[in-house]
Amino acid sequence: MLQSLWKKIPTQMDFKGQKLAEHIFQIIIVVSAVIGFAYGYMIEQFGWTVYVVLAGFAISCLLTLPPWPMYRRHPLKWQPVQELRTEEKKLLEKKPRKK
């Protein structure tokens, strides 16, 4: 039962989705770093800078690591499987296999 449920969960992103996820990740990390640095500088506590950056990292991971539907809008179109011709089959059969 769990295997059939697991197979229904999508686990891949397309190339445009990967680019979007990377872009979102970088924006969140940079914005949280700037906000964290400014806040830590104002209150003169470096620890709060680290906390804000870690919170930004956690948020960016939640938004970019799972394959959300927005990352799967452009699926790849695979070519159909082609059968080998008889000449190619004979060549493959004649080649010695490496051990």
Order of helices and strands: HHHH
The portion of residues assigned to helices is 55-70%
Percent in strands: under 5%
Average pLDDT number: 88
Poorly predicted sequence stretches spanning 5 or more consecutive residues: none
Spatial gap, N to C terminus: 40 Å
**What is the global morphology?**
elongated
Q: What is the structural class? A: mainly alpha
Number of strands: 0
Largest sheet features: none
How many alpha or pi helices?
Answer: 4
Radius of gyration: 24 Å
How is this structure best summarized?
With 99 residues, this protein is an all-alpha fold.
Describe the structure.
It is a single chain. With 99 residues, the protein is mainly α. 65% of the residues lie in helices and 0% in strands. It is elongated and about 75 Å long. It starts with a helix and ends in a 5-residue tail after the last helix. The model has no long low-confidence stretch (mean pLDDT 88).
What key attributes describe this structure?
99 residues, mainly alpha, 4 helices, 65% helix, elongated
How would you summarize the topology of this molecule?
Layout: H1 2-8, H2 15-43, H3 46-64, H4 86-94
Helix pairs in contact: 2-3
